[in-house]
Amino acid sequence: MAEDKKVKKTNKKRNRAIMRSAILSLLVLAIGYTIYNSVTADDVEVLRVGDKAPDFALEDMEGNRHKLSDYKGEGVFLNFWGTWCEPCVKEMPAMDRQYKEYEEQGVHILAVNIAQSDFEVQSFADRFDLSFPIAIDRSRSVMTAYNIRPLPTTVLVNPEGDIQRIVTGEMSEQDIKGFMEEIKPQ
Amino acid sequence: MEKLQCKCGHVNPPGTILCESCGRSLTEEEQHKKLADMRYEGTARRSQTYNKSIIDKIWNFFSSVKIGVSIIVLLLIAAAIGTILPQAQYVNVPVRNDETIKAYYADVYGEIGKIYHFLGFHDLYSSAWFIILVGLLAISLIVASLDRFVPLYRSLKNQRVLRHRSFMNKQRIYAEGPAPEDAMEKAEEKLKELKYKVTLDKNGLLAEKGRFSRWGPYVNHIGLIIFLFGVMLRMMPGFYVDETLWIREGETRAIPEAPGYFLESKDFTMETYTGEGDEAKFEEAIDRVGSVAKNYQTDIVLYQTPDESLPGATDEMEQVKEHAIKVNQPLKFDGYAVYQMDFRQNELRAMTFDLTNKETEESLGTFTIDLVKPEKSYDLGDDTRVDLMGYYPDFSGFENGEPQTETPVPNNPGFLVRMFTPETPDGEVSFIVIQNTIEPLGENQYKLTFQSAETRDVSGLTIRKDRTLPILGLGGLIFMIGVAQGMYFNHRRFWIQRQEDGELVLAGHTNKNWFGLKKDLDQVSGFASLPAYIDQQEEIEKKEKLKKEQKLEGDELS
Q1: Which position has the higher pLDDT, A158 or B551?
Q2: Whole-complex ipTM
Q3: pLDDT tens digits, residue range B535-545?
Q4: H helices present in B158-250, as ranges
């Protein structure tokens, strides 16, 4: 009888401890998750390294359609830019030199202009004699899908179609070369 | 702590004040009181009793009402501090980043602004510590409620009819004395008539009404928890969207945070009251302030791309509907609402120039440059044309001889042109900005004169989606039900017992509205000829008042 009571008592105690721990840890988890979300919500990079790069389809200045998923197995160097953005202008010639070197090794460049006119983009390309394809994101839907805020932003997509790296701000030629190596198919 | 065994034989959990079975006072302190502490029916708060493991200690901490109130006070102070200066999201800076926002606080509010920003108050409501504070409040609400609700529920569910005399005479409403033979039966009849639930046991009677009113506070805590849960969901992706979209007339743009949807702006209109005819009543106001707005409206077309369509492939979009967005008349689709919030008027859209001979002022023709779609060459016939070599929408100066543009918006458009005429077949180069012409390669014979401009308006729209509204509504509703339950209903109880000597003992208790309880009792007493009752609380107060007065008198005498 007394033994029975004792067993009951320890059972009750154990249940209580489990119950309380469960409730407290659930609440702490909820708070933690909320903080995590609020901290990352304002972050520029809603897309994160390792995420699948959102697929898109854009037409370049020559009228060729570029669909990201068509480049599976190859690296894609995705550069968002505008003619008014100084660092964008500065890095373009270096990008072009590296493009010529890496195109054959399976790294493509696609420069996505943010909703400027054909004239502005074409005269810019002519001025620097750019050979990589340039597309204009007229409705800014690709920009929205990639949540691009500052320009230039470069998204490096590896042969698996995942985001290898996100670079905001100007890149030196050395940087560009290094990034191309990172996404070069083996 | 040890379990407490009452004189009646019942074993109570440690920490109990009044025996669960008979109502005897169990603590020394309680025994000396004139009135019983009836909060939570004298049961033990669960956390008070065990304080062993670390979990129990944390639990105990949050169970305290003092801690709960302290958290609320801290939250109030913090929330108030957040209103002293505007929060970062409402600060108006041209380029939004940490640096400019920091500079804004320093420039506009000086030293105070610097400190405010340094302490992180500019983004107070989404700061980790504020969220933690709200979270602690949630924990406190849940733990404190559970700790009190469970024992209270058990105690009220297992109520005994017969209570010890010491319990009875420590109730605020109390009566004892002789009563007729049929007093108990008549009291039962009357109490039942007054909608009391009556239980009999041997020589005693328990009448009870409105017990559910005691659950009011716990119900409203459930409401609060649901509300907080809704607020928490707002921070999860997909539940809450609040974005701004600036869209120009003629533009088609992807709607931020609404994948697959596009908006085209057809027209923006702003109307003001004329002050004439039907609108004569606005005349006075118009005279005073200049103009009174009547309508802000953006006519839009909503498009959607098929599910399998990819971003960028705008040629696949299909029209969903046309709509005129006005203030308070948003465009609604798929859980989103698009509101008219702001506007900018008269942004340059197209500019018309005249090619003229400087000397003779003879015109060779006019042409219009569409700033959205500039062309490479404008042919004016007769071997006369103007080639556009460069367009700089927001000209900001030259760098290494190259014109620069600061933004893609045509605030200060600059054009680099080469003009061909029969007289100048090799072309003359000119750089034109508003009210200024530069001839970089020497004196020209011809010039472009500005004729006229077309402008367009920009609409500032806000895109909102809030999936948490039903949850917030539900939380609010449950909260209000809890409040009503606890405020407008009372838990009233009477205990009546016939003693061995034939006298009756009566006690009454309610959680609020003692006046109502007394009114009920007056009816029962009159009908069943019960002994007259006294309000012991009032007696005590009366005595204290008398003592005070006597003391004052004494002071005056001496």
Answers
A1: A158
A2: 0.79
A3: 988 888 888 89
A4: 165-168, 183-193, 216-234
CB < 8 Å to B393, chain A:
84, 120
Q: Residues A46-55: pLDDT tens digits?
A: 678 888 999 9
Q: How far is CA A99 from CA A66, A86, A133, A179, in A?
A: 16, 20, 10, 12
Q: Measure A157 CA to nearest chain B CA, in Å.
A: 17
Test mutation, B91, B99, B231, B235, chain A, max A CBs within 10 A: B235
Q: B84-98, B398-412, B458-472: lowest mean pLDDT where?
A: B84-98
Q: Using an 8 Å CB-CB cutoff, list chain A residues near B348.
A: none
* Domains along the sequence of chain B with CATH: 165-210+490-557 (3.30.160.110), 240-345+460-472 (no CATH), 348-455 (no CATH)
Q: Cβ–Cβ of B374/A117 closer than 8 Å?
A: yes
Other C-beta atoms within 10 Å of B332: how many? 11
Cβ contact, residue pair B53, A115, below 8 Å: no
Mean pLDDT, all residues of chain B: 89
- Which of B2, B48, B50, B59 is the mutation pick for testing A, counting most A CBs within 10 A? B59
What 3-state class would DSSP assign to B212? helix
Contact state of B371 with A117 under an 8 Å Cβ cutoff = yes
A106 backbone dihedrals φ, ψ, rounded to 5°: 90, 25
Query: Measuring CA to CA, how many Å separate A169 from each of A80, A88, B431?
Result: 11, 8, 31
As given in the structure block, the two tokens for residue A152 are 């230039």
- Cβ of B313 within 8 Å of Cβ of A21? The answer is no
Q: What are phi and psi of B129, to 5 degrees?
A: -70, -35
